[in-house]
Give the backbone structure.
Amino acid sequence: MENTDSQFADLIAKDRKAQEGERWRGKFLDYLQRIKQEPALGKLAHTRLYGMVIGEGSGNLTQRDDPRVKRLFGDEPPKVYNFFKEEFFGIERPIAQIVRYLHAAALKGEENRQVLYLLGPVGAGKSSLIEALRRGLERSDPMFAIEGCPMHEEPLHLIPRHLRREFEKMLDVTIEGDLCPVCRFRLEADFGGRYEEVPVAAVTFSKQARRGLAIVPPVDPNNQDTSVLIGSEDISKLDRYSEGDPRVLELNGAFNVGNRGMIEFIEVFKNEVEYLHTIITATQEKFIPAPGRHGTVYVDTVIVAHSNEAEWQKFKADPTNEAILDRIVTVKVPYNLRLDEEVKIYQKLLATSGFRSHVAPHTLEVTAMFAILSRLAPSATCDLMTKVKLYNGEEVVEKGTAKRVDLNELRAEVKSEGLTGISPRFAMKAIDNALTESPDGVTPIHVREALIDMVKEADFPDSTHKRYLEFLQDTIHKAYLEILEREITKAFVYAYEEQAEALFQNYLDHAEAYVNKTIVKDRNTREELQPDEAFLKSIEEHIAIIGPEAEGFRQEVIAYLWAAGRRGQTIVYASYEPLKEAIEKKLTHSVRDISRIITKARTRDEEQSEKYEALVKNLLDKGYNDYSADVVLKYAANNLWKD
Ligand SMILES: Nc1ncnc2c1ncn2[C@@H]1O[C@H](COP(=O)(O)OP(=O)(O)OP(=O)(O)O)[C@@H](O)[C@H]1O
Ligand SMILES: [Mg+2]
C-alpha cells in the first residue's frame, strides 16, 4: 500500500518538475537571448508541424521484409512516416501527400497560403489524421508567446519595423506579422512602449484550453456569424470604453485560438460561400479582420479542412467557386484496399474498445474481405475475390492457365477506387454487435451473420443491397469455407508444415527435371529417377492446371523461384502462392474423408474420439477457445462436406 502511495507521489513530483521546466517565463529581452541560442523557436506554424512529423523519422514501405508489399509497390514505394505508422494502415500515399504539403508550406511555397483539404468517403480516416496532428502538437515542445495575448502571439512581433532587418540578421530568423490590437494597446498602456520588458512565457498547445488548436464544425446557415472565426466585441464593455478601444475585443474566434498551430474545419463545404471567403482570405493574406473597427490581425496557422465526395462535387459544380478552388490543396483519402492492412485497422480499434472477449482466428480477416470487396470496382480480367488477393500483394494465376494476372493492368482498368463501399466503422459495428450477442467469443460465422443483418437494415440503394448480400452469402461464404477447411486440415495433419515442405521440394525436383529434360536424384536413396509426371499432375490438378497448361506452369514455377532465390529470398512452400494453394489443397484432399467422418459423427468410437480431441486441441493451440472451436467444427460438419 505504502509502496504504491510513494510510487504515485514520485510520478506526480516528476511530472510537475517536467512541467515547470516547460513553464519558462521571462521578459522579451530574455526571450531574445533564448532565441539567439535556438533560432528554431521562431518557426512558423507550417514549419513546426512539418518538423514534428519528420522529426520522428521515416522509411519506405519496401524496406519491410514482406514480399507482398514489395510486389505491390516495386518501383515506387511510398514513404512511410513513423509519426503515422502505428495508427494508420494502407493509406501511405495520402499521408505522403499531406507531408509533402507541409514540406512545401514550410519552405514558403504557395502551399503556405493554401488550405489543406482532405476529401474522402465517410470513415476513411480524415478526422483521425487531423486528430493525430493535433495530438502531436499537444505532445510537442511549447511555443513562446506574449503573456496574456489572446492569440498567444509570437513575441518577435514586438520588434518595431525599422529594427527588424537588424534583428533578423542577429537572430537568424525571419520575422513575419504584426502585434494584435490587444498587445499593441497593452504595450503602450502598461509598458510605455518599452517592449523589451513585455513578459513572454512558454505555452503548450491544448485543444481543451483552446491554445493553438481550434476546431470549427459547420455553422448553422441561418447564423453564419463570423464571430466564430474572428471573435467579437463585448457589447457590455462598449459603454465603458470609447469606440476603437481594443479593450472591448474578445479575440476568441477560431483564427485567434488556432494562431500558431492548426485549425480544423469539419465538413467545410456545408458553410455558406461568404463564410468560406473569410477562410480563404485568412490563408491567402495571413490576415483576418478584427471585429468592429480594429483593422486587421495577423494570423499564422495551418488550415485543414475536410468533407466527403458529395459536398465536394456540389461545390465544384458551381463556377463561381473557382477562386476558392484555386486556393485549396486537395488530398484524396480513399479507403484502404489491402486486406492485411484492413485487419490491422480492426485490431487497432478493438484494442482501444472496451471489448475483451475472444475473437477467433480469421474473424477480422473475413470481415476485412467484405469491406474490401465492397470498395472494389469489378474487373473484366478476374473475379472480385481474386482482385482482393492481388491488391493484397498475393500472386494469382488466371484460372486454369499458367498466366499470372497483372496487377498494373488491373489498376489501369479503373480511374478511382476506394471512394465508395463500407467504412471501417461499419465493419467494426458488425464485430461489436457480434461480440455483444455472443459473450463466449466470436467467429467469422458470427460476424458474417451480423454483417448480413446490418446490410439488410441499412439504407443502401437496391443494387448495393443486392451486391453486398451476394458478397456475404456467396463470395465470403465460399472463401471462408476454404479457409476453414485448410484450418481443419492443418489441425488434422501431423506436422503439416513439414509435409507441405516435403511435397514442395519433391514437386520442385520433379518439375525442374521435367522442364530441363533431365533426371531426378532421390534426396535419400540417391536413386536416379525419371521425372514423375503423374505426381506433378496430382498437385497441379488442385488449381485446375491440366493438359497443355501444365508445362507452362512448371516453367513459371521454376523461373519464379529461381529469380527469388537469386534475390536472396529463402524458398519455402509458401513462396509462390499458386503452388502453395495447390499443395495445401492436396493435403486437404488427402484428409477430407477422415475430416468428414470425425467431425460429422454423432457418436465416435475410441479411435475417432482420440482423433477428434487431438483436432480440438490443435485448434486451441492455434488461438481458438472451446466455444469457438466447437462452433467452427459444427459449421464445417454442416457446410463443408456434402454427403
Ligand atoms: N486507413 C486507416 N488506418 C487506420 N485507421 C483507420 C483508417 N481508416 C479509418 N480508420 C479508423 O476508422 C475510424 C473512422 O475514421 P474517421 O472518423 O477518421 O473518418 P472520417 O474520414 O473523418 O469520416 P467522416 O467523413 O464520417 O467524418 C477511426 O477510428 C479511424 O482511426
Ligand atoms: Mg470525420
In short: Residues 207 and 213 are 5 Å apart (CA to CA). Residues 126-127 surround magnesium ion (ligand 2) (CB under 6 Å). The radius of gyration is 32 Å. DSSP finds 27 helices and 16 strands in the chain.
